[in-house]
Write a structure and sequence with these properties.
7-stranded mixed β-sheet, alpha/beta, single chain, 19 strands, 520 residues, 8-stranded mixed β-sheet, Polyamine Oxidase, Chain A, domain 2, FAD/NAD(P)-binding domain, 3 domains
Length: 520
């Protein structure tokens, strides 16, 4: 196959690589997509099965402000629908479910409500100081990067309930434990999704909608536009050689492809499996060896009916209980009401521990969790089907959803993330500045890398590389409202200080009054 020459070779047939290939091809360039798997889609994977219809085993959700993804889906004819949250949600702790409506439960302990409000306000305040395209340049970047999220949680959260909530937020958000994440990384991650509430919410948030027929259709339909003759499947890349004029890409199958430029659209740590000549720069080598992908198992339990709705539950749970394997669940019934199902995420240490038991044990433990969460429902214990996807098993993903960074990495090495190396450019959702770790970020990154090559070829100006996306008319973003209480209520220690000062002041006034009376 040596002698096959293209303008651009894209390594990776996920949403990011295909977005880059599609844009370049539409601009008249000759492209080739080289994919290691036997399918397109990368970290999106829709299983089609007569017993369940279809199910997204990987990335699935889309919501307001994810305008590139909404634009791409509309162009490709992929419709979306809102997930169900009409009934009550459930906060799960101490092996019990506490139903609520709205964004958050109302805790009986007022200190917990103060603590929740303050913790959200504080993490968003940190985000306000961080640039989405260069978090390492924040004025307090080194301080934040040297602190783990566990340290921040212990310092900021005074009540056990809110400590557990933020531990769970790390687990469900990036599938890692708080002690594995730097505060700079996680505060940036929340910032570039629109803040804590947008990030964690379904309604008006990142989990508001899904795609009819599954999210992998987006990659499949992009592949159809690019053309199967321009896509090489089951072709893991083993080596990339560069000269001053061109790049050659060698696969483990023995095929060799040549191009003027190459885009790597893979998770950063997976690029360590490739041999480079000349070698990657030392700082890039250090970065990709310090960017682990999260640990998650996505689990779907199917029933003969939506029994949880009969009990006035929508299926959504926040599991802050350390004893529960799941961290988050949602209703995954099809929009036409068929194939009733609950979907949940088992993440971080819980996912790693889950690997040690059988598939049947995993199913049964999850069913018992649903039973406890939804008021001791007997129906939860009698599923008719069960599917799961352990992303830690995927050698061409390494995990899901995204690469993460521990203390010191972003400030020392983060600038290497998008920096081209010769004729090699970098895409992948990790390199995005908006909804990184999501399908939206994958599209932004792929199109940005494609435009960088267009600029290198003299086809566009430098200021055209980064482009804003018009807001979706069909899925507009509503403002995230904040109340006077949320903006101004004290933290728990702030309340204690206020009470203490009030007591002292009252005592001083009392003593002063007594002294005046004695003088009279």
């Amino acid at each position: 196959m040596e002698g096959t020459k293209k303008d651009v070779i894209i390594i990776g047939g996920g949403i990011s690589g295909l977005s880059a290939a599609k844009l370049l091809q539409e601009e008249g360039l000759d492209v080739l997509v080289v994919e290691a798997r036997d399918r397109l889609g990368g970290r999106t994977h829709t299983l089609v099965d007569p017993s369940i219809g279809y199910v997204d085993l990987g990335g699935a959700y889309v919501g307001p402000t994810q305008n590139r993804l909404l634009r791409m889906a509309k162009e490709l004819g992929v419709e979306n629908y809102k997930i169900n949250e009409a009934e009550r949600l459930v906060w799960v702790d101490n092996q019990r479910g506490y139903p609520f409506k709205g964004s958050w439960p109302k805790f009986w302990n007022p200190l917990v409500n103060l603590d929740l409000n303050n913790a959200i306000r504080e993490i968003d305040r940190l985000g306000d100081m961080i640039s989405v395209d260069a978090p390492w340049d924040a004025p307090n970047a080194e301080e934040l990067d040297n602190m783990t999220m566990k340290e921040w949680i212990d310092k900021t959260c005074w009540t056990e309930s809110i400590r557990r909530l933020f531990i769970t937020t790390c687990e469900v958000g990036v599938c890692m434990e708080p002690q594995e994440l730097s505060v700079l990384f996680f505060a940036w991650y929340l910032k570039q999704t629109g803040g804590y509430v947008r990030f964690i919410s379904s309604d008006n948030g990142g989990q508001e909608r899904k795609f009819v027929g599954g999210s992998q259709q987006i990659s499949i339909k992009m592949g159809e536009k690019i053309g199967k003759e321009n896509i090489k499947m089951e072709s893991p890349v083993a080596q990339i050689n560069q000269s001053e004029e061109s790049v050659s890409v060698h696969t483990i199958n023995g095929d060799v492809y040549q191009a003027k430029y190459v885009i790597s659209a893979m998770a950063p740590p997976l690029t360590q499996k490739i041999h480079y000549d000349p070698p990657l720069p030392p700082r890039r080598n250090q970065l990709i060896s310090r960017a682990p992908v999260g640990s998650v198992i996505k689990c779907m339990v199917y029933y003969d009916k939506t029994w949880w709705k009969d009990r006035d539950f929508c299926g959504s749970t926040f599991n802050v209980d350390p004893a529960s394997p799941m961290v988050y669940s949602l209703d995954d019934t099809k929009p036409d009401g068929s194939h009733p199902a609950l979907i949940c995420f088992v993440a971080a240490n819980k996912a790693r521990e889950f690997c040690g038991i059988s598939k049947e044990e995993r199913r049964d433990r999850l069913c018992r969790c649903y039973s406890a969460a939804f008021g001791g429902a007997e129906e939860a214990l009698h599923p008719i089907n069960y599917k799961e996807k352990n992303w830690m098993n995927e050698q061409y993903s390494g995990g899901c959803y995204t690469s993460t960074y521990g203390p010191g990495v972003l400030t020392q090495l983060g600038k290497e993330l998008r920096k081209p190396f010769g004729r090699l450019y970098f895409a992948g959702t990790e390199t995005a500045t908006h909804w990184a770790g999501y399908m939206e970020g994958a599209i932004q990154a792929g199109e940005r890398a494609a435009r960088e090559i267009q600029h290198r070829m003299g086809k566009i100006d430098e200021n055209e590389i980064w482009q804003d996306e018009p807001e979706s008319k069909e899925v507009p973003a509503l403002p995230i409202p904040t109340t006077f209480y949320e903006r101004n209520a004290p933290s728990v220690p702030g309340l204690f200080k206020f009470i203490g000062r009030t007591v002292v002041l009252s005592a001083v006034i009392g003593v002063f009054a007594i002294c005046r009376l004695k003088k009279k």
